[in-house]
Amino acid sequence: MFSRCCRTKLANQTVYLFSRYQSTLVIAEHDNQKLIPITLNTITAANKIGGDITCLVAGTQCSKVAEEVSKIPGVSKVLLADNEAFKGFLPESLTPLLFATQKQFNFSHILAGATAMGKSLLPRLAAKLDVSPISDIIGIKDKDTFIRTIYAGNAIQTLKSKDSLKIISVRGTAFEAAALEGGNAASENAPDADVKNEVSEYVSQELSKSDRPELTAAKTVISGGRGMKNGENFKMLYDLADKMGAAVGASRAAVDAGFVPNDMQVGQTGKIVAPDLYVAVGISGAIQHLAGMKDSKVIVAINKDPEAPIFQVADYGLVQDLFKAVPEMTDIVGKK
Ligand SMILES: Cc1cc2nc3c(=O)[nH]c(=O)nc-3n(C[C@H](O)[C@H](O)[C@H](O)COP(=O)(O)OP(=O)(O)OC[C@H]3O[C@@H](n4cnc5c(N)ncnc54)[C@H](O)[C@@H]3O)c2cc1C
């Protein structure tokens, strides 16, 4: 399956050439119940590379997820690794599984989303397999050549990898989501691996609960910055967001000041979003913030400083005090 043999004539001798067949492993991200959407974007990226796509579903009581993955068009095989050891998806437990999987199947590419999980797992695996990880790609030129941003999104790099195995994290917003129905991939158990982890232990997790859409998947995002002054004032943004069906994000300054939790941070060291509409409220537009939202289709900025750099990337700008503008907007949206 992993090498393609072709026959050619050379000086009257028949020579068999073996070229490595493209085969990509996509590491599925999920919560043991359902897939996290970035896996679908990662599968689209894998499709662009070409060749067979295998999806690894590792978790605890996660067979439902394996079923979901098997229906995604383009996936030819699902490897299921169901083990108590994968509680919390600790990279220290998952890396030996991936190592064993790679040793058995010899994939040419291993892909995961550029999420907290992908970012902690892939560099470990790359170190174990002695290859250079390629992070946060936004485009694929061919099987060896990838596009990614550098300098906080200010420059675009085209990178050609000479490694025989490419280990890549994928920026979800740069690739369309694959369809959820239409495929019929076979499932089998992932290879056995010694996943005993004495370095770290999963204790518990506290997830912020919200009925609003997930930040990276939302079609509209309203973000607040230091200009919001405190956490209580974010209620204004939640009210507006609820009327617009939007997610709420924040700048790092707002997170660092303790206004909101850090899973709301948008930017170079936060989440990358590319919604249809991004509304920046009381955010100056530092390059590290722009790195996380400048691919949004329409950008609206509300800032009382007409010189704020955010206006350079905004499609629509409102120079006004946000404490006046936001309640007015909420009123208008509410009447529609
Ligand atoms: C390595 C590194 C990584 C970073 N990563 C990130 C990141 O991921 N995300 C991120 O956001 N930042 C990041 N930063 C921080 C970044 O450089 C900025 O400091 C930060 O984005 C500023 O946030 P802000 O725009 O909310 O605050 P400020 O720059 O202080 O801007 C506040 C804005 O609010 C406006 N304002 C104030 N009051 C009002 C009002 N009443 N009405 C209307 N407007 C008002 C002001 O005019 C001002 O423009 C990073 C920095 C570094 C060095």
UniProtKB/TrEMBL annotation:
Binds 1 FAD per dimer. It is found in: Mitochondrion matrix. FAD binds at residues 226, 251-252, 265-269, 282-289, 303. InterPro entries: DHS-like_NAD/FAD-binding_dom, ETF_a/b_N, ETF_a/FixB, ETF_alpha_N, ETF_asu_C, ETF_asu_C_CS, Rossmann-like_a/b/a_fold. One of its GO terms (cellular component) is mitochondrial matrix. Residues 24-206 form the Electron transfer flavoprotein alpha/beta-subunit N-terminal domain. One of its GO terms (molecular function) is electron transfer activity. Its cofactor is FAD. Keywords: Electron transport, FAD, Flavoprotein, Mitochondrion, Transport. GO terms for biological process: fatty acid beta-oxidation using acyl-CoA dehydrogenase. Belongs to the ETF alpha-subunit/FixB family. The electron transfer flavoprotein serves as a specific electron acceptor for several dehydrogenases, including five acyl-CoA dehydrogenases, glutaryl-CoA and sarcosine dehydrogenase. It transfers the electrons to the main mitochondrial respiratory chain via ETF-ubiquinone oxidoreductase (ETF dehydrogenase). Heterodimer of an alpha and a beta subunit. This is Electron transfer flavoprotein subunit alpha. It comes from Mytilus galloprovincialis (Mediterranean mussel).
